[in-house]
From TrEMBL:
InterPro entries in alphabetical order: CK1_Ser-Thr_kinase (IPR050235), Kinase-like_dom_sf (IPR011009), Prot_kinase_dom (IPR000719), Tyr_kinase_AS (IPR008266), Zinc_ribbon_dom (IPR026870)
Protein name: VRK serine/threonine kinase 3
Organism the protein comes from: Catharus ustulatus (Russet-backed thrush)
Biased composition, class Low complexity, residue ranges: 58-76
Ranges where the Protein kinase domain occurs: 104-367
Length: 388
């Protein structure tokens, strides 16, 4: 079969891939679909039109936990760019075998969103403790989970993370530890992580809705640490939202930045990509929080992640953004924007050039100062109640 190459970065890709695993760009249709009309290659299922996340009634009651069903019923998700092949949930007790031959048993569905399904899982083989819990992410084989798998293999190996922590004297770094990956039933792809806990979005959906300043500043610093790490390893995250930030109820010092389905290799081989509007599909990611560059179809850069984090902070503290359609709350949002940490943060981020390296230490200091006045540290247990 003829080789295929990404027209944006030149990487050789497998014939069935729709997105480039290196840069995330959409790939053209395989040549076979056009040159052999008598016996065309199986064409992928068309991407569904944008639609809300399946309702709790569409998820088997035995699969979803009560908090998942309640969250889905109460709080609609921010709209995402539509993607190919939404994965159907698998029943509890399904066993999946990863590429290394290790077996994993699904315990319960914890969360579902625009970028896949997240399960609590346990080892079903003798290589891992049987009672230890893991987080298993499952999605359609040709979905963005392949891009996520590529990110972890290329830029987030456990040894690389540990070296970075020591080099930067960071006590905790919330990069997920990917312990396995594989295919299931020739239609699913999955990743296995050390236990992530619960998404911040699900915690907010439980009735918390807003975060206190102390908690928001703690999470902001921890996310900035993660962004500095992935940026130094040639990637940007591309989808900073509460759905992709996890808190561990068993250890609230753990704040993890997950969800790398939209990760973009902005600096392959140390050379920053050129800013070109329209070079990518516009509006990719969670609409409410993506950067202006992403809206314009420009490859996201480091400033894009920082801009999205700023929008998240405003939403967590105010409950609304100016563009969310709730105009009666606009005054409260403006007042929050004018508060020193946010005004200074957004001013510094929006002043960055496309290829400019941010001053991460200065940005962290904006939130560290008020935490010091509260006699708190970003690396303390996060001061919020999280139920298992």
């Amino acid at each position: 079969m003829r080789n295929r190459f990404c027209p944006q970065c030149g990487l050789a890709v497998e014939p069935e891939f729709r997105f480039c695993p290196a840069c995330g760009g959409r790939l053209p249709a395989p040549p076979e679909e056009h040159t052999e009309p008598a016996a065309p290659a199986p064409s992928p299922s068309p991407a569904p039109s944008p639609s809300p996340v399946p309702s709790p009634s569409q998820v088997p009651s035995s699969a979803a936990s009560p908090s998942v069903r309640a969250a889905a019923a109460r709080l609609p998700r921010s709209p995402r760019k539509s993607r190919p092949g939404l994965a159907a949930p698998l029943p509890a007790d399904t066993v999946l075998t990863d590429q290394g031959g290790r077996r994993w048993r699904l315990v319960r569905l914890l969360d579902q969103g625009g970028c896949g399904l997240v399960y609590e899982a346990q080892s079903a083989s003798g290589t891992c403790p049987q009672k230890q819990s893991y987080s298993l992410k499952l999605d359609a084989k040709d979905g963005r989970i392949y891009n996520e798998q590529n990110f972890f293999q290329r830029a987030a190996k456990a040894g690389t993370v540990e070296k970075w922590k020591k080099w930067h004297s960071v006590p905790l770094l919330g990069i997920p530890n990917c312990v396995g990956f594989g295919l299931h039933a020739d239609s699913y792809r999955f990743l296995v992580f050390s236990e992530l806990g619960r998404s911040l979005q699900s915690v907010l959906s439980d009735g918390l809705h807003l975060l206190r300043e102390k908690v928001a500043f703690q999470i902001a610093i921890r996310v900035l640490d993660c962004l500095e790490y992935i940026h130094e390893n040639e990637y940007v995250h591309g989808d900073i939202t509460a759905e992709n930030i996890y808190l561990n109820p068993a250890d609230l010092t753990q704040v993890t930045l997950a969800g790398y389905g939209f990760a973009f290799r902005y600096c392959p081989g140390g050379k920053h990509v050129v800013r070109r509007e329209g070079s990518r599909t516009p509006h990719e990611g969670t609409m409410e929080f993506i950067s202006l560059d992403s809206h314009k179809g420009t490859g996201p850069s480091r400033r894009s992640d920082l801009e999205s984090l700023g929008y998240c902070l405003l939403k967590w503290l105010c409950g609304i953004l100016p563009w969310s359609g709730e105009l009666d709350q606009l005054k409260a949002v403006v007042e929050q924007k004018e508060r020193d940490p946010f005004q200074s943060y957004l001013e510094q981020v929006m002043a960055l050039e496309y290829e400019e390296k941010p001053d991460y230490a200065a940005l962290r200091q904006l939130f560290r100062k008020p935490l010091e006045k509260m006699k708190a540290s970003a690396y303390d247990s996060v001061d919020v109640r999280v139920v298992p």
